[in-house]
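[job 4471] stage=fold_predict status=RUNNING
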Amino acid sequence: MDVGASNADSSIFFAINGAEKVIALEPFPESYELGKYNIKINNLENKVFLLPYALANYEGYTEFIISSDKPNVNTANPSPYIIGSGMKFEQKIKVPTISLISIIKKYNIDTIFLFKMDCEGCEYTVLRDLPADILNRIENIILEFHDYPKDLPDILRKSGFNVDYEDKPIGILKAYKNDKLIIQFS
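[job 4471] inference complete, writing structure tokens
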């Protein structure tokens, strides 16, 4: 699963390297359209399913703020670090939201081998609010955080994950249930 898929480059990489199915979310309309195009020209429409949603812990809509300078930081949840960086957000749009529970039900997902999150702040509320039975379906997590990892390492450890990260404002957190994060590509 690819949350914050942008132009679908990671989703395509996962699909051409052995993933049977990739569910990808990208709420920013321009990135979503580019992602659809990239999936099509790579003939991966039967493997990569790009959805125009923001991941949240509820179904509905959220306000998404847009930066024309850096479209990869468009977000519904700007971190204090991003706000403090002087980044300018000039526009707001309304985007639909979907929960992980709904995705799992809709696509009949038993196990999520890799849960990649680059959602500019949604990782905190989404992971904090996940029921244990849903979190238990996830094998590996790679996420980018924007305001220190906060309580995410503790939440994930309590759910049986090993967790690696650097304690800094922006970074990558890796969580895995085996001895180490192993992603096998063919």
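[job 4471] summary: The radius of gyration is 16 Å.
[job 4471] exit 0
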